[in-house]
Predict the 3D structure of the following.
Amino acid sequence: MLINEDIKIDYSDVLIRPKRSTMNSRGEVYLGRTHKFLWSKKKWTGIPIMSANMDTVGTPGMHKILSKNNMITCPAKHYLKKDVSKFKGGLENICWFGGIDDIKHLSKIKKGFIGLDVANGYTIRFVDAVKKLRDKCPEATIAAGNVVTADMTQELILAGADIVKVGIGPGSVCTTRIKTGIGYPQLSAVIECADAAHGLDAHIIADGGCTNSGDIVKAFAGGADFVMIGGILAGHDECDGEVENGVMKFYGMASESAMDRHGNHNNYRGAEGKTVEVPYRGKVDDTIKDILSGIRSACTYVGANRLKTLSKCTTFVRVHNTHNTIYED
Ligand code: 5GP
């Protein structure tokens, strides 16, 4: 047994120090990024925010709005097997995720990104699956995860991933940390995995744990190339589900609700996700405007005229807990 004594941080453990800036308004900030990918050699330009590949938020309706905003949608896994055609237009702004058994379906996707995502990206079986997907799809931009450490980020990249998905346990409807004691503070995971990936000219997705636009800013500031959000997008018109008494259901993909819906109960797998009710929040467009305005504002506070330079302009300040100081709706 070992104890790692280094201090590791979550989004709520830091704030970003304001800096002198020559910028006059948020309108001067460019939020687009162009990423060129290590193995596929493809380029993508857009605002690097992604909807999580979860049942309620990875929907065709969400894709319509996100793609209009040059953001990426990751369809819920059940669309991959028989409903790919429900996602129309903006196909370059879709990242299809599947599990190890979905390689056959994933290798049929001709446009956009594909990815393998499992709760535990640390197994040899998973690394072999990434290699297999890369062999089958040499020109695809492949994302793989989830992991939280530099060593495994490098291993997945060397196995053929262009992008590594980072996050074990931070999700708003995730119970992995409670059920298993496994996890890693998310901002430290992002900083350490981004450093490892960037050293190899690869990219990372900061996946989970963002509860407001300030957390998304911190993920980008920590080096994330993409930020994936689930809970922030829940509760909107574009989500799958009904509004009842002013709330909508939002559930983890390893929750009882998901297992009931997809019939993948088995004897040794207990739920590592939960079901919550989130307030109904109307059109997702308004939430997106709010998020983008928060990121623009953060960039002006630190003197970054492009999202690309936000990380370089960032000095994090450690605080005990920011929940009282950040606006949450
Ligand atoms: P959020 O943005 O809601 O904080 O986090 C979304 C992320 O939570 C997803 O992209 C995925 O990585 C993770 N997630 C979704 N469902 C579950 C689940 O049932 N269990 C766990 N452990 N993580 C989940």
Remarks:
- The chain has eleven helices and 14 strands.
- The mean pLDDT is 94.
